[in-house]
Amino acid sequence: xxxxxxxxxxxxxxxxxxxxxxxxxxxxxxxxxxxxxxxxxxxxxxxxxxxxxxxxxxxxxxxxxxxxxxxxxxxxxxxxxxxxxxxxxxxxxxxxxxxxxxxxxxxxxxxxxxxxxxxxxxxxxxxxxxxxxxxxxxxxxxxxxxxxxxxxxxxxxxxxxxxxxxxxxxxxxxxxxxxxxxxxxxxxxxxxxxxxxxxxxxxxxxxxxxxxxxxxxxxxxxxxxxxxxxxxxxxxxxxxxxxxxxxxxxxxxxxxxxxxxxxxxxxxxxxxxxxxxxxxxxxxxxxxxxxxxxxxxxxxxxxxxxxxxxxxxxxxxxxxxxxxxxxxxxxxxxxxxxxxxxxxxxxxxxxxxxxxxxxxxxxxxxxxxxxxxxxxxxxxxxxxxxxxxxxxx
Length: 393
Fold this sequence. Notes:
This protein is an alpha/beta fold. It has helices at 7-35, 39-64, 70-99, 104-134, 141-171, 174-192, 198-220, 280-287, 306-312, 326-334, 349-355, 380-388; strands at 223-225, 228-234, 241-247, 253-259, 262-270, 273-276, 296-300, 317-322, 342-346, 362-365.
């Protein structure tokens, strides 16, 4: 049965599933800097994805009943979907700012819906048309449908691992979305270009190239964050990290590390040293002075290394635990963090506390984030586990 279906339709089904999952994952990374990577956001993204695909499947069913050549319809749908895939990386900001005043819950529901509706609706339209074009016999339509949806799902599985584990953590969203849009449109043109006159395709191609060049330009030139310079931006599964710099009149820089648009570090760069503006790292260091120098300290939550730097001055031997391995390199590159009497451990804080055999004289729990509080670290069981890894007295 598989051999009877044209290879180009199998390829298009795979590309459609691949693109759908990639767009869904892009949307989470686009929205989370505004509203956090919360359970509410994921619920809204999943519901919006299904809603957009449902509209697409329904509309695609009607288009498949028409007399027009299915290849021509497929080509148009995939080209329009490509325009929206690359376009979502810049129109999404305007949409989220527009919904911001509607309240948190409304904004978290409406933002994914409006961002996803167009690219996923046009991608969803393609499935019924691919099935119609692939059906060599009406009696085999059911089998053809199963094969097409299986191939599409396989594309989605590949995209989940590829974008979730490799592409988004290393390259962010804007450039990969542009590459994905070019990939989808190029595949459609190569397989289906004979179904349409080139003069009709020129506006699609020019529009896609224009938007792609704009997005690339906006993501490689120096950026501003309000009145401040963005020194670096890193996208990843664990969130977006920015290092934002402001030059003071005295010639010193003020730097902030911003995770999902919530400031996690606020430092003055004085004589090559990052000195925290916030009082708690200094207070922790003062409280720690009652413990002998050279004692063992555990810092849960690394940030840009403010707590670790302060404890290093008191000669503590420090284990710093954080789930985000990017932070150590960011601290060294942008906050002049010095690796001294310190061991960086990539792990979840609660998991590390439960499995370590080491005992500590001082434990600093700095895992709180502005938009999503780690409630599992604030339970009775968690504090009992912390007590178990502390030395006597």
